[in-house]
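Why this split exists: single-chain examples teach little about how molecules sit against one another. For that reason, every record in the complexes split bundles all components of an assembly together and asks for one structure covering all of them. Below is a record exactly as it appears in the raw files.
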Amino acid sequence: MSTDFDFDRIARAWLADGPTELSGRVLDAVADDIHVVRQRHALSAPRRFQLMTTSHRLAIAAALVVAVGAAGLLYLGGHGAPAGGPSPAPTPSASASASAAAASVSAAPSLGVGVHASGTIVFELHDPTANANNIWSIAPDGTGKRELVAKDSCCLSLSPDGANILYATQTGTLVPNIADLDGANASTYQPIGGPTGLLLGPSGGWSSRLAIAFEGWSDTDPSKTGIYLSVDNGGALVWGDLKRLTTRPGALHDIPLAFSHDGSRLLFLRAHDQGAAGTPGPFGDLYVIGVDGSGLRRLSPTSTGIYGSDWAPAASWSPDDRQVAFSAFADPNVDGTSAVYVADPTTGDVTALTGSVLWTTSARWSSDGMWIAFNHIGSGTPTHHDLFLIHPDGTGIRTLVRPAGVGVCCAQWSPDGSYLLVQGSPSDETQSRLYAVKADGSGVATITNDAGEYTSYVWSPQAQRTP
Amino acid sequence: VHRALVELAQRGDEEAFADLTRAVGDGLLAIAYRILRDVNRAEDAVQQALVTAWRELPTLRDPDRFEAWLRRLLVHACYAEARRQRRWAVNVRLLPIHESASGDDAIATVADRDQLERGFRRLSPEQRAIFVFHHHLGLTLTEIADELGVPLGTVKSRLFYATSTLRAALDADARAVTSPSTERLA
């Protein structure tokens, strides 16, 4: 055992190492940013105002009232009443705007052109000005973009029928919410049962039985860490009672990933770490468990692990729930060595579909069961991420798209299986856009031209409502 | 020295704010790096914190509290950065191991550093921040509670957990994960 003295000295020596000088690039970027960012008005009166007399203040206040009223009348006279128009688009940074123009040439020239699919795409996009992930929706043809949630959000998923979204807002604390597909009728989850002081991230999404799986923990009580289920008790789309599914005391979490289609089982990540810098998220073992707590089984092979992230779901169920596809990395992961696997969730038998390649992510089973979509870094210089399809028996592998730049990642199938929704970038992942790739490889269309970080996205079969 | 610059910046003086960022930038990077363990991410967090500071600066009531207030903004920027750990466009980067300039280098061996890095990865951003503020900045628990705006009890529990985890990482590789006995792997 280390003594306290040894530990303090070792910890201090370890912490003493690190960079000593902020780069000029950052200072320049800050100077550029503050030039366009307006300062917030002080809540307290400035000093010079405090020196005024009461009569001066009243006079200024009266003048302000008159001025605001006049401005309002002028506005209404010129524009009509501003009733229920679409929300403004996010404001990308200057560098993002420049990159957006480049992407429209290098990737797919036309917004949504050629996308013949129905439904609504809902996505989380990072707003660098507010440092928040806001939720937006857009039609597959690139029209009708609107902001649904103007708060920092995470863990976006769809209800089984695609008519509702589930997400958590992160303003101060984590608060789960359900809303209509257009963002209306948002309701906040108040746990019924379960321990107090619990934080709940709805990362496991929604089951066909209307249960919701939460990653649960407490910042002050590690004994509360585990997966919790909100079990519907009314047969309707409502919040239900909270019950605990797994127990994982400590700071390392169990993170729910996906329910089986019949809602009887849940895939989850049992994390080894909190998510190292430069990785998609926490790293750990893939497990399956029945929603009644039975049948706990590890699926990822020994000496491998998977990453948990909203944007690159590492595991998915086959349409008949008989198999699970996942991408796993060598553990410890030092160079991205990884492969796609298929596992039998009942027996635990695992088969590698691909040889060891680099940086494999996002194994997603198509709705007809014929294909598994995944990414890995392709050959060539510079390296970039390609999108592949492979049959569940390991045959028929083919490259679906090899775009310019750093490539594409993290495919989600459209509801009818004719497209794959991916994010891609001509420069780096912070300048990504969403693209729809034809599943037969015959084309790519740009869905969004807002360059940024797409932290999550889903494709609902339900059409957008007219605002 | 900073008070006059802070007051000028509060009134919208961009040059004064640029002078402030040059004066405090290195210190902010040092804190952010120690929480995030990644230079690029730390720089992103510093940039975000400074832009937020510029926007919110008129609401700062006491200019003498500027640096403490800025550290709080930085820690929140680090939380956001840590939770946005996402890298699909690059290979996993090895954690950097720097040569130490301190005389304690003989104590913190390469093996120790590796174990500390592993242990640190298991901590939440909140626990990391408390550990860095206490062991690197040398703040007392009361000072940390005041600066970060969290209850003293929370600071104590986070530091206890962080210390326990890192001690365990040093004493042995605590990463033994028990596999279910029913597992069958091909």
